[in-house]
Amino acid sequence: MPIHAAVAGCDVAPYDVEIDARKCLAYAAGMGETADVYLDDARPGGIVAPPAMVVSLEWPASRDIRTMPEFGATPEERRRGVHAVQDTRFHRLIRPGEGIRITGKIVAVKSIRPGALTMTRIDLTASSGEPVATTYTTVISRGVAVAGEDRVIEEAPEWRDDAVTGDWVEVAIPIARELPHIYTECADIWNPIHTERAAALAAGLPDIILHGTCTWALAVREVVADLLGGDPGRLARFTGRFTGMVIPGTTIIVRYAATDWGARYEVIAADGSKAISDGRALFRS
Q: Which among 45, 120, 192, 215 is placed 20 to 30 Å from 59, CA to CA?
């Protein structure tokens, strides 16, 4: 049963979330953040959420989109969807004590050689109406057809040209066997292929695999800590293409270098493949 191209333009029901210190602290701890700006809620001005915590808030909307009746595809075909790209613009930081509304809209459905590509725009908006973050998330459903002509309502903004201006830095990060379990609970993003080996093997995977958004968040952590001096408010945009698997119990390499406007980065898995490629960041001055 194909995915219906006509689903482009459909919205999911919004989610309203109250941000509290517990949620922010749990996400920060799960990502191994140690800076006071994320963990010391007694500091003057309080704490902020790590920028990458937006993925935790986006998860229910991105999950629900694939279960909409208008979407098409069978439950088995929907399980073939893999997260291909995470491209987030950070309008401002998230703080405990505020309400956030999460809305999602499918903005593109295309037939590509591996199967069906769907792109969703997810917006996080404060209760005051102030934009917080905008994400374009792409999913590829392998071996699944598209019914109807490709439909594209909106594309992610293009990146301006920039050149690498600094030396490439490599950071080795051991991925503990238990990290997917910690991330699942601290980010509240659950898919059994990340935590249950039987489910992963049944899905054709060699083992449980680390969430792509966790790998992405680890890259955010390193770039912010080094190139931005630990100031998360200067991160304006962060994108990456998920092109490989990270097996827990191995070590990844995050490679990054400064550019005219931000940074380029990639994540190398233990087998030498690129877990994240085409990584780019945009900074505020």
A: 45
**CA torsion 224→225→231→233, rounded to 10°?**
20
Domain boundaries, the chain: 1-157, 159-285
pTM metric for this prediction:
0.95
- Whether 55 and 217 have beta carbons less than 8 Å apart is answered as yes
Tokens read off for 24: 């922010």
CB atoms within 10 A of CB 197: 12
DSSP string, 250-264: SEEEEEEEEBSSEEE
Give the architecture (CATH level 2) of 159-285: Roll (3.10)
Neighbours of 28 (CB within 10 A): 23
Which of 58, 52, 56 minimizes the C-alpha distance to 12?
58
Q: What is the pLDDT of residues 57-100, one digit of tens each?
A: 999 888 887 777 778 777 777 777 889 999 999 999 999 999 99
Buried b (16+ CB within 10 A) or exposed e, 120-140: bbbbbbbeeeeebbbbbbbbb
Q: Are 265 and 224 in contact (CB under 8 A)?
A: no
**Does the domain formed by 1-157 have CATH 3.40.50.150?**
no
The tokens for 184 are: 């699942």
